[in-house]
Design brief:
Length: 119
């Protein structure tokens, strides 16, 4: 004995996604996302003194680079304190050279810590 299975027509809208394909009426937000995309320019200024640079890259820079036509990233670093010449030459400057990016490095004289107004 042969069993027959009959398939009925789905009711209007049933069985089709809102994008027109079969997806059981599930809207994955694709249509809405297309509406949200617009030509934009964003500029972000971050005080990243206590942030992990890798988190900034993963969460901000990489997603922007994936979608934007042009992404420019500039990092401005200032450090003041008792810094050894070896740290500056062997680590900082060497790393800057290895990055193969445009950079500038400037050592600025700092004022004396002693209070000159005492008399």
């Amino acid at each position: 004995m042969k069993s027959e299975t009959k398939y009925g027509k789905p009711e209007s809208g049933e069985g089709k996604s809102k994008e027109g394909g079969f997806g059981f009426g599930i809207d994955f937000g694709i249509g809405k996302r297309k509406e949200e995309i617009a030509h934009r320019k964003v500029m972000i200024d971050i005080d990243a003194s206590d942030a992990r640079i890798v988190d900034i890259y993963k969460g901000i820079i990489k997603p922007l680079k994936d979608e934007a036509e042009n992404v420019s990233v500039r990092i401005n670093t200032e450090a003041e304190g008792d810094l050894s010449e070896q740290l500056l030459k062997m680590e900082v400057k060497e790393t800057l050279q290895q990055l193969k990016s445009k950079y500038s490095f400037e050592e600025v004289p700092v004022s004396s810590k002693s209070n000159d107004s005492e008399g």
